[in-house]
Amino acid sequence: MRLTRFTDLALRVLMRLAVERTELPTTREVAETMRVPYTHTAKVVARLQHLGLVEARRGRGGGLALTGAGRAASVGGVVRELEGAGDVVDCEGDNACPLSAACVLRGALRRAQEAFFATLDPLTVGDLVASPTGPLLIGITGGGPGPATGSARPDP
């Protein structure tokens, strides 16, 4: 199973926000820290916000924050939501497979995909930033161990 770049970036944004304790980073700052285009990051943040995993605050003291639901979110659930429920292979597309009516592979791939998601289900976003990952992320991002205080920032 291979994740889309969108899902990969979404998981990295969630992890980045899970270690932030001192201030609320803007979308631009998160994009720069992760070395990805701002426009991609903004789309990911908008989707995560729509899912209730991230809160974006505008204006003075604004920025991005992981919600309680975001910290407790199942990684499997997040990946399922972002990847969609589609099959691993497209048997019915423009060039439909002539074996699709009697294919064993399609069902096996569907079960393998669900096993992949099920392996991620017990993990939460909070689990992803446990040691050794969390301290490394803090070092990369400059986040500190204190409570989130916010700061004077422009738009998230």
The number of helical elements comes to 8
Order of helices and strands: HHHEEHHHHH
Radius of gyration computed on alpha carbons: 18 Å
Distance between the termini: 33 Å
Helix content: 40-55%
Quick one: how many beta strands?
2
Characterize the structure shown.
With 156 residues, the chain is mainly alpha-helical. Helices cover 51% and strands 5% of the residues. Strands 1-2 form a two-stranded antiparallel sheet. A hairpin with a 5-residue loop joins strand 1 and strand 2 (63-66). The longest helix is centred in the last third of the chain and has 17 residues, at 104-120. Residues 145-156 have low confidence and may be disordered.
Which tags fit this structure?
8 helices; mainly alpha; 156 residues; two-stranded antiparallel sheet
Can you lay out the helices and strands and say which pair or pack?
Blueprint: H1 5-19, H2 27-34, H3 38-50, E1 54-57, E2 63-66, H4 68-72, H5 75-83, H6 104-120, H7 125-128, H8 133-141
Antiparallel strand pairs: 1-2
Helix pairs in contact: 1-3, 1-8, 2-3, 5-6
What is shown here, in short?
The chain is mainly alpha-helical and 156 residues long. It has helices at residues 5-19, 27-34, 38-50, 68-72, 75-83, 104-120, 125-128, 133-141; strands at 54-57, 63-66.
